[in-house]
């Protein structure tokens, strides 16, 4: 395959960016999208040019570091992470546009790399449980109904890639926040701090300049781990309950 790439190039956070066109030849359909970018970077380095900066780590669809917008869709045309997207999803002669996540809360660091530290700060605000130190409790000491365990596991699959933010017209991070709230709020260990957790995390979400959620659903449509949209409903119920209880 021979393809044409239109790639966003930006030297730094305060620099003006632009789209740059590159030709990539002899692309194997079995290459992952990131492997294709590696081939492009090898070509650029041999020509004495600056390679394209992009995030990646495990390349196994687990860490969520590899997020880019491909032809206007977060992670590209398949419902998976960018590292698990293969070039067989494209055709010979295609022109492919590659951009970083675009959100005020995710400033561009360089080229396709964005700073997703806002997600870390949302977690730090309340995405945890406080447990006393001491001997670990016996397994199954606290029974958890299967429906609750399944709900918690489904929410816990969120890898924090940020595709939900990139896809949302409002650049909202509510699906990510809701996944973390629902995960812990579905388990007995998460109940003592449930009300305080949702208030703190939503407040931090807003302080990070994420947009508001208007239930458009684009976030769930592109989520590579299939986090359901109704986790946001769970967050809203928890938040209204916390605010109306008068305990905070």
Automatic annotation (TrEMBL):
E.C. designation(s): 1.3.5.1
Residue ranges occupied by any 4Fe-4S ferredoxin-type domain in the UniProt entry: 149-179
Alphabetized UniProt keyword annotations: 2Fe-2S, 3Fe-4S, 4Fe-4S, Iron, Iron-sulfur, Metal-binding, Oxidoreductase, Tricarboxylic acid cycle
Reaction equation(s) it catalyzes: a quinone + succinate = fumarate + a quinol
Keyword Ribonucleoprotein: no
Keyword Metal-binding recorded: yes
UniProt cofactor note: Binds 1 [3Fe-4S] cluster.
NCBIfam families: dhsB (TIGR00384), PRK07570.1 (NF005746)
Name recorded for this polypeptide: Succinate dehydrogenase iron-sulfur subunit
Organism: Nocardiopsis rhodophaea
